[in-house]
Please model this.
Amino acid sequence: MQKFAAQTKKCGKIIGFVPTMGYLHQGHLSLARQAKKDADIVIMSIFVNPAQFGPKDDFKKYPRNLKQDCRLAKKAGVDIIFYPAANEMYPENYQTCVEVVELSKPLCGRSRPGHFKGVTTVVVKLFNIVKPDIAYFGQKDAQQAVIIKQMVSDLNMDLKIKVMPIIREPGGLAASSRNAYFSSSQRKDALVLKKALQEAVLMIKSDEKYEKNIIKAMKNIINSVSSSMIDYIAIADAKTLKPAKHLKGDILIALAVKIGKTRLIDNVQVHI
Ligand code: PAF
Model:
């Protein structure tokens, strides 16, 4: 992969890169389609990265289907799939990690310690292997996108990061590989995430000044389904991820909620 990437760059070709953990959905495919528009060669990685899963996370049962992924990726314009094995990425005696310290602490960082360190480490490795000019990430993982941008800036990495909008299923559920875990009733219950975010935006637009009132209204919506368990609801500055005390500027409203055993994240960004 490294040799091919170096050769491609030598020819002056632009490499667009879509890092994924596979089990592709419309969100991933929208990134690939954008890459096809921007770049000469589109490379997608499929690697379920053990370093970003905690001991209680779903690493073992994370959905995988390489054959289907290859078919979907090809249709969306992907030229090459990079599919390394875990012992190639992390051979014995592997020692190095990359961590974006402060941005990795709040929101998902609180309930998934070490998760973002695993993400940034593997993303740096993938960037070094694939040598992209542009890399594509989804806004659904809003904190991940902010962290990656910070890392690229902090480490003077020579590539552009493009963050693409959330893709939603017809009812409003954000596309996610983990949606595959849902029964049909859980899938219906999961719509409370989007409903809660919509209510928050409505309240902000109606001039609600207090974040605690917004969070209370969101909690009521989510708690209206018995399968839900809130991990966090945050109203934060979209760049620093610090709590947005005054509802002003670019605000990220983000949440993580378990529906049954499946943890979902979703968010919306508003400018006030
Ligand atoms: O967003 C994901 O799917 C993963 O976190 C990523 C960026 C592919 C790293 O494993």
